[in-house]
Specification:
The chain is of the alpha/beta class. The protein has eleven helices and eight strands. 36% of the residues lie in helices and 18% in strands.
Amino acid sequence: MGPVFLNYDQRTLDDAYDQRVWAPNMEEVLAGYAAASVHTRAKLGAPLRFAYGATEAEGIDVYRGAASDAPVLIFVHGGAWRRGAAADYAFPADVFLPAGVHYVALDFPSVTDVGGNLRVPASAVRRAVLWIRANAGRFGGDPRRLYIAGHSSGAHLAAVALTTDWRDFDAERDILKGGVLACGIYDLRPVRLSARSSYVAFDDETEETLSPARHIEHLVAPVVVACGTRESPEFIRQAHDFVVMLQAAGKPVDELVVEGCNHFEVMRTFATAEQALGCAALALIG
């Protein structure tokens, strides 16, 4: 059988988008995120919970810092668009609250609960951003200083938000002031050709509208694009190609290569201000 994409046959392409192949400690690391988040809630207290939509999945956990009119970091979790919960990603709040930044973890509908329609979670993330902009004052946030970060499929959704023409939503183009994108996907073509199409209902419209690399003209904020050196080769390629594309277009972008980390271990570096993602995010927010 010949190549399906680049030099990949079907099996190797499927493996390139299956993190279990490249990160045998996946379950252990994910359990570590959850345990660290329990510790964070015990230390900081339960988050404020707000709904930005009608369904139970459309909610945000707000970890509020002491400062008022403070910047807000919105975090979009990963999980191949079908798994994960905001509650398991509380632990970065330990980095941002001491720095005077409110930390908001998003919940959004799983793609498998909406018939495989990836446009639904993408729309949910956009609506969450708009809700936070309109309601940041309820928890002391500055609606003029919203930042977004995401990991894995969450980095894809965050990148969709960053490459949205927000004028279509009656908002200012620079509603988001910056982004940190860790281990993300920026062009859906190879993903559509992979085994992920078994649960995502890819079509031409989804591929085109939700591929951030095809909408970089709408990116007006600085971004950090991060990837681990022990990632799948496709995730490494996606990150680097996106950086090169943004650089060629004159967009403000920094490439962050996290040495010795696989796809899931990269997220651990959001746990302290001295590690890769935590440091990069704080520097971006200033």
